[in-house]
Design brief:
The complex is a heterodimer. Chain A has 9 helices and 12 strands. Chain A is α/β, with parallel strands linked by helices. In chain A, helix 3 (103-112) crosses helix 4 (123-135) and helix 4 (123-135) crosses helix 5. The two termini of chain A are 33 Å apart. By secondary structure, chain B is mostly helical. Chain B has a single domain (12-206), classed as ABC transporter involved in vitamin B12 uptake, BtuC. Chain B has helices at residues 12-16, 19-44, 48-68, 72-90, 92-95, 98-117, 120-131, 139-168, 170-175, 180-211, 213-221, 225-249, 254-277. Chain A binds chain B through residues 62, 64, 83-84, 86, 88-90, 92-93, 97-102, 105-106, 109-110, 112-119, 143, 145, 158, 161-162, and chain B through 43-44, 46, 157-162, 164-165, 167-169, 171-178, 219-220, 222-225, 228. Chain A: This is ABC transporter ATP-binding protein.
């Protein structure tokens, strides 16, 4: 895997730029007034409760869901135009596969799957697929069929398939859902390595932040129908998280310096959860201004 | 016990050398190529039930054509293609909707019966449409099959990778720029063609065992899409030719033996795979 972008080019342009962006489904507004920049080289989580439009946001960034208002630019171009350089891993990798495709054949499709016409696979393409599989630690599974692999392994195949085309940005929808603890940790390690060694920008839809906390640089949070971006120290605010999840949440820092997000002592703590709508909107401005 | 006699016919080589048998063997080859290749994609796209339904949607077309005195295959093909284009336009998810598909399937079968009962000639043809009549395939039909096979292989060679990609994960393929709507319509339209040429062999009711079952068996045996398509075609061919030979030896309809062989291959492959997994 090569790095084809210089640090300067990255600094000049944010990875993702939202300007007054809104999305509607039918008449219902999913979210609106999204205005923020996500820097290149960052690891960002999209957080929010169920149904707030996290997956929709990712699809808007891929140009698969049209905006009703505003613009989204990704990698310096309008959403959808740079998809060749974006690796996308939807949640569907977990579904059972009826195909007898092997891991390697699946990864190769990330490179050749869009080509019409007759193209025998070249040695260079095969090497590239091997390299991507080695990076995510499944080189020894190249010949295994997808249907024989566990959910965690299938996810790594999906990540390798996304990596094989040298993306600048990797998007993963709920990559940790349905995985056991060990597989979750392994996935986070792969993401950390991609970001650290290749400088890849990474965006992850997640509802549990804990596993990702060590590698996150910021988060987009969907709150009260508006998306916001904040650097990590601003996100890790008990009050914000409490609002975000609609239930009492505490941020705990251990003596070793590790941070955890945990449910508060009670399900609902009146003192933390009784802001008026005006207070909440003030809270947003505060978060936005602090960036 | 006097009515039923499963006697061996010693004159079977003579039966096999009859001209209608030559047509049947060649038709079997054309059907095996088409069904073997498309069966793989049907399973990969999880559209097996939709493909099965196409045959039933074709049934009123076939009996309606018989009613009007038109070629049965033409009526079948037109109805199957119409159904295919509608299912295709609704998207891959629609082809996985079992209740809607099943309801349309039942209604179409009923309509087919209604058309068949409107005239005695259509009524006579109903059984061969439902259960196949590979021994009555004409040379004209045979040429049509061959032309279809050539078109099928040419189109598939061009859309092979995008079709495979969209079969594996439609969302990723769409994000990468594969025209998934066009892929879906192309798949269903080709499937309507496969159904149209396979129905004369085993009929609308048994088509699943000819188009899907060999592909499912091949998926167990073979390790790559290409090899699976090849294996599936060979299994399909062995089932059809075996059916023709055995039906010349014993008094059983070819459709029954074809379907039995196909099911047997699948059951053996499943059994062996299960034993190996232990």
């Amino acid at each position: 895997m090569q790095h084809q972008h210089t640090p300067d080019a990255r600094a000049a342009e944010p990875c993702i730029a939202f300007r007054n962006a809104s999305v509607k489904r039918g008449d219902r507004v999913i979210w609106r007034n999204g205005t923020f920049d996500i820097p290149a080289g960052s690891v960002t989580a999209i957080v929010g409760t169920n149904g707030t439009g996290k997956t929709t946001m990712m699809k808007a960034e891929l140009g698969l869901v049209p905006l009703s208002e505003g613009t989204v630019r990704v990698l310096g171009r309008p959403a959808g135009e740079m998809n060749r350089r974006i690796g996308y891993v939807p949640q569907s990798y977990t579904s059972d596969v009826d195909s007898n495709l092997t891991a390697e054949q699946s990864v190769l499709l990330g490179l050749t799957g869009t080509r019409f016409g007759i193209h025998p696979t070249t040695r260079a393409e095969r090497d590239k697929a091997r390299e991507a599989m080695a990076f995510v630690g499944i080189a020894d599974r190249a010949r295994s069929r997808l249907s024989e692999l566990s959910g965690g392994m299938r996810q790594r195949v999906a990540i390798a398939q996304a990596l094989v085309a040298d993306p600048l940005l990797l998007m993963l929808d709920e990559p940790l859902a349905n995985l056991d603890l060990a597989s979750q940790r392994a996935t986070v390690q792969v993401l950390a390595k991609l970001n650290r060694e290749l400088g890849m920008s990474i965006q992850v839809v997640a509802h549990d932040l804990n596993m990702l906390l060590p590698i996150l640089t910021g988060a987009v949070y969907l709150l009260d129908g508006h998306p916001h971006y904040a650097a990590l120290d601003e996100v890790l605010d008990s009050d914000l998280l409490t609002h975000l999840y609609g239930t009492s949440v505490r941020v705990v820092t251990t003596p070793q310096g590790d941070m955890f997000v945990t449910p508060g002592p009670d399900g609902d703590v009146p003192g933390q959860d009784t802001h008026t709508p005006t207070e909440i909107s003030g809270f947003h401005r505060h978060q936005g201004g602090a960036r | 016990m006097s009515g039923i006699r499963f006697s061996f016919d010693p004159n079977w080589p003579a039966t096999l050398s009859a001209p209608f048998m030559t047509n049947a063997f060649l038709a079997g080859l054309a059907i095996a190529v088409a069904a073997g290749v498309m069966g793989y994609f049907t399973i990969a796209r999880r559209s097996t039930f939709a493909a099965h339904a196409l045959a039933h949607i074709g049934l009123p077309g076939a009996t309606g054509a018989a009613l009007l005195g038109l070629p049965v295959s033409a009526g079948l093909g037109v109805f199957a293609l119409g159904g295919a284009l509608i299912i295709g336009a609704l998207g891959k998810r629609a082809s996985q909707r079992e209740i809607a598909t099943g309801t349309v399937l039942a209604f179409a079968t009923g309509l087919g019966l209604f058309f068949a009962r409107l005239s005695s000639s259509a009524s006579q043809q109903l059984q061969s449409i439902l259960f196949g009549s590979i021994l009555t395939i004409s040379t004209g039909q045979l040429i049509g099959f061959a032309v279809f096979d050539v078109i099928l292989l040419a189109v598939l060679a061009v859309i092979y990778r995008p079709l495979l990609f969209s079969s594996l994960d439609e969302q990723v393929a769409q994000a990468k720029g594969v025209p998934i709507g066009a892929m879906n319509i192309a798949f269903m339209a080709i499937m309507a063609g496969v159904v149209t040429i396979a129905v004369p062999a085993v009929g609308t009711l048994l088509i699943f065992a000819l188009v899907i079952t060999p592909a499912a068996t091949a998926n167990i045996i073979a390790g790559s899409p290409f090899r699976a398509m090849l294996t599936s075609s060979v299994l399909c061919l062995v089932a059809i030719w075996g059916g023709l030979v055995l039906s010349a030896m014993f008094p059983a309809p070819p459709s029954f033996i074809i379907v039995t062989l196909s099911t047997l291959f699948w059951a053996v492959a499943k059994g062996v795979a299960a034993l190996r997994a232990r």
